[in-house]
Design brief:
Number of helices: 12
CATH architecture of the largest domain: 3-Layer(aba) Sandwich
Largest sheet: 7 strands, mixed
Distance between the termini: 30 Å
CATH topology of the largest domain: Aspartate Aminotransferase, domain 2
Helix content: 25-40%
Shape: globular
Radius of gyration: 22 Å
Structural class: alpha/beta
Number of domains: 2
CATH class of the largest domain: Alpha Beta
Bound molecules: pyridoxal-5'-phosphate
Order of helices and strands: EHHEHEHEHEHEEEHHHHEEHEEEH
Length: 377
């Protein structure tokens, strides 16, 4: 087994099993932080071209990761940035409908509520019902349905949705498929050229191991065409000229995806290390990372079954990614176990009274065993 653990940390004897909250920077990304600081400590080192090259580099790395053209990628600082710009950029009419999933993560749900004042109706399907989600979608969609938005991997249960079949149903009903990939991209492969998704939005600081304050949106050229201008950021308007010729006051609303990039698009401190982290993951290969994650998750689920905890997460590898949620009939036992694990230097999350364990490429089988040993019988 390759030891990717050595490419991270040092973790000072701690075990980080909470990537669903924050992914650690690989060592290579830490070096890139140092490089960014070096540029800013003595700005004569900061070349003007870096303002273009740094964002171009992140877009290239993200494009390679999801098999998209860098021109189709919008840089952000979070998942929320991308979803807000999509919602504000599309034109809505009274009576339009959007379908969401009952109980989805607040970041996926809340921004849509802004549209209710424009007469947009929110309708819901329920991924926990025995009726397949695709059937519910087909039954809920009407000619007024514009979009279906869901989280790929659910933070509260670890459930991973089948985005191929969901996207197919969306397209049969002429509904845009907007996917929150924040808990999946980087842990499981996604090829947007072959997946029927129209918009993929993700934060960058979990499974993509970037700094906090990173994120991206990928969208199809067709969706990009539907987006009205929401920004008039001066820097991309100067494209093709140098900073000594910046008195350009003509508003260019045809900048493609880059017209929607977060302001401060060159954000050296964040985007230099994030690029290094994405390139590191891509070099290993997301397929290999996924296989490694699946082994860790399989070991954890099997081990947890002999404890007094119940595994909330679906056991089928096609229906989960790298998040395993454990519940206990006594919430106080769950809380105590979470605390005891933390005292032993094993970091998990407590979410809605359950323990959430989320290993990634740097975790080892021994670390999973160390956690399982501490689960009460
Ligand atoms: C499913 C999901 N989406 C989004 C986020 C984060 O959103 P943002 O990057 O906008 O803070 C999280 C964070 O826990 C999450 O679990």
């Amino acid at each position: 087994m390759a030891d990717w653990n050595a490419d991270f940390g040092p973790f000072d004897g701690h075990t980080w099993l909470n990537c669903a909250h924050q992914g650690p920077l690989p060592k290579r990304a830490v070096e890139a932080v140092d490089d960014a600081v070096t540029l800013k400590r003595a700005p004569h080192r900061l070349p003007e071209r870096a303002f273009r090259e740094v964002p171009a580099g992140v877009k290239r790395a993200l494009g390679a990761l999801i098999n998209a053209s860098p021109d189709e990628i919008i840089l952000g600082n979070s998942f929320s940035y991308g979803l807000h710009l999509l919602i504000h950029g599309l034109e809505w009419n009274d009576g339009d409908e959007v379908i969401l999933v009952e109980g989805d993560f607040p970041a996926t749900m809340l921004p849509w509520q802004l549209l209710e004042s424009q007469g947009v109706q929110l309708r819901f399907v329920d991924a926990e019902r025995s009726t397949p989600l695709t059937q519910q979608l087909a039954e809920t969609a009407t000619p007024r349905t514009r979009a279906f938005c869901t989280t790929w991997v659910d933070s509260f249960t670890g459930r991973r949705l089948d985005i191929d079949e969901i996207g197919t149903v969306c397209h049969e009903h002429d509904v845009l498929f907007v996917l929150n990939g924040s808990q999946g991209v980087g842990a499981r492969p996604i090829d947007v050229s072959r997946t029927p998704v129209d918009v993929l939005i993700s934060c960058g600081y979990k499974w993509l191991c970037g700094p906090y304050g990173t994120g991206f949106t990928w969208l199809t050229p067709e969706v990009l065409d539907l987006l009205g201008p929401v920004n008039a950021y001066w820097l991309p308007m100067q494209a093709g000229t140098t900073l000594d010729e910046m008195q350009n006051l003509s508003l260019d609303t045809e900048l493609g995806a880059s017209g929607y990039d977060i302001f401060g698009t060159a954000n050296f401190n964040n985007f230099m290390p994030w690029t290094a982290a994405i390139e590191y993951l891509t070099e290993i290969g997301i397929e290999r990372i996924s296989t490694h994650g699946e082994r860790l998750v399989g070991r954890l689920i099997e081990g947890a079954e002999s404890s007094s905890f119940d595994v909330v997460t679906p056991e089928d590898p096609q229906r989960h990614a790298n998040i395993v949620v454990l519940s206990h009939s006594s919430e106080s036992v769950a809380r105590e176990t979470h605390r005891a694990l933390a005292d032993a230097g094993i970091h998990t999350a407590l979410r809605e009274g359950n323990i959430r364990v989320s290993p990634h490429v740097y975790n080892t089988h021994a670390e999973i065993d160390g956690l399982v040993e501490r689960l009460p019988e």
